[in-house]
Amino acid sequence: MVLPDKAENGREPSDTPQTPDDVVVAAQEVGEATGLTCSACSEDAPEGAKFCEACGQDLDTQPKPICVACGEREVADDGYCHSCGQKQPEERDHHVLVDGRIAAGSDRGRRHHHNEDAFAVANVGTGAVLVVCDGVSSTPGSADASLAAANATRETFLAGLGAADIDSDVVDVEELLVAAVASAQTVTVEVATASGSETRTDPPSSTLVAAFAAPVDAASADSPITITVAWLGDSRAYWLGASSILLTTDHEIGGSLSRWIGADSPDARPETSVVTVDGPGLLVVCSDGLWRYGSEPTELEALVLASISGTQTSPPSAEMVEALLKAANDGGGHDNITVAVWSSTDLGRSTTETPDQQDHPEEVEEGTNE
Q1: What's 335's DSSP letter?
Q2: Cα–Cα distance between 277 and 213 in angstroms, integer?
Q3: Which pLDDT score, from 0 to 100, does residue 208 have?
Q4: Burial letters for 159-174: b for 16+ Cβ neighbours within 10 Å, e otherwise?
Q5: What is the mean pLDDT of residues 243-255?
Q6: With b meaning 16 or more CB within 10 Å and e meaning fewer, what string describes 40-64?
Q7: CB-CB contact of 270 with 177 (8 Å)
Q8: CA angle at 209 for the pair 259 and 153, rounded to the nearest 5°
Q9: What is the DSSP letter of 80?
Q10: Which residue in 53, 207, 345, 351 has a CA-CA distance of 20 to 30 Å to 144?
Q11: Domain ranges across the chain
Q12: Which of 305, 295, 182 is nearest to 249 (CA)?
């Protein structure tokens, strides 16, 4: 707390340390001197007033937020300005995270009004776990479901690992991922139950892909990498290295999802895969909002290489993730876009976050997750 200085209350500043009681008294005295201030127009109002005499604002309620486009206080609870029609930014519209060997980001895209994608990541020794969930936008509540599922997958997996050796000969990483996905299914159903939608024909649902990667020899920069993947739906995992490969197969029939997590899921047990690949390289986990602009491993590799070109830092980096999100938006941004990248080489980065750094282009009619 910063107390008013001489210019604000007409008192000389004191060198005597203040006690907590002194601070309370000082704050009360300032309040008595200034009365109330309208939060809408900043005009003073007499103590005890219910409405602002200048603008009519109810002094007991918060005013509507200011529109980022037109500056009017006409933003309604649905997030749209009733003066100019502009949708206001949401916290999940654009978010990028860099933590050690991991960089991840998510973006709303051009066509959707909300971001139903979510990611959760963690460095684990010399390895990492990456989780991406793509909430099905045609089912209400999927944004909450995907976020809860991603976090539950990561936390359950990390709890399962505990303090154990991450060597796959000691710990059954595949079963830990299966258990982690089971926890994601549980919390997704809980989201539906909390909203009373668990018995609907369209309860909250999401795809999910979780991948754990670790070098066989942690002391070698060129060590082979063991990657364990669990997934449901069409979110994907790729290994980009000397031999770039797709690590997952889409669960789709006739263009529609055949497996997912949610109260109406016909089979919520994930498909799994364990592979060992030559290092060094990049593990990329992403939603279809990215891979549909570079589906084949060589195509995605080209997107990643283009995102690295011209950056001042080694991959993975915030600049790299921003470039990948931009590439998908430039390609049409038909869906929410999420990507998480882990590098098998140590880049020694610290943790940084850059939420809401990108202005979104004009929206077009909302589509649905495929």
Answers
A1: S
A2: 10
A3: 98
A4: ebbeeeebebeebebb
A5: 95
A6: beeeebeeeeeebeeeebeeeeeeb
A7: yes
A8: 105
A9: B
A10: 351
A11: 36-88, 94-353
A12: 295
The per-residue pLDDT for 41 is: 75
- State both tokens at 213: 């990667």
Strands (E), the chain: 36-37, 44-45, 94-99, 102-107, 117-124, 127-135, 205-215, 225-232, 236-240, 245-246, 252-253, 256-257, 261-262, 271-277, 282-286, 337-343, 352-353
Reading the block at residue 116, the tokens are 């139903």
State the pLDDT at residue 313: 66
Q: Which CATH architecture has domain 94-353?
A: 4-Layer Sandwich (3.60)
Region 72-94 average pLDDT:
76
What local confidence, expressed as pLDDT, does residue 365 receive?
38
Dihedral angle computed from the Cα positions of residues 34, 38, 39 and 43, in that order, rounded to the nearest 10 degrees: -80
State the Cα–Cα distance between residues 160 and 164, nearest whole angstrom.
9
Secondary structure letter of residue 268 according to DSSP = -
- Asked whether 196 and 141 are in contact (CB, 8 A), the reply is no
DSSP 359: P
State the pLDDT at residue 84: 80
Angle between helices 318-330 and 297-308 (to 10 degrees): 120
Structure tokens at 67: 């529109």
Find how far residue 39's CA is from the centre of its chain.
Answer: 32
Q: Give the C-alpha separation, 230 to 214, whole Å.
A: 15
- For residues 130-153, b (16+ Cβ closer than 10 Å) or e, as one string? bbbbbbbbebbbbbbbbbbbbbbb
Q: Is 325:265 a contact under the CB 8 Å cutoff?
A: no
Cβ pair 139, 354 in contact under 8 A: no
| Eight-state DSSP code of residue 7 | H
Q: How far apart are CA 340 and CA 332, in angstroms?
A: 20
DSSP string, 110-138: SS-SS--EEEEEEEETTEEEEEEEEE-TT
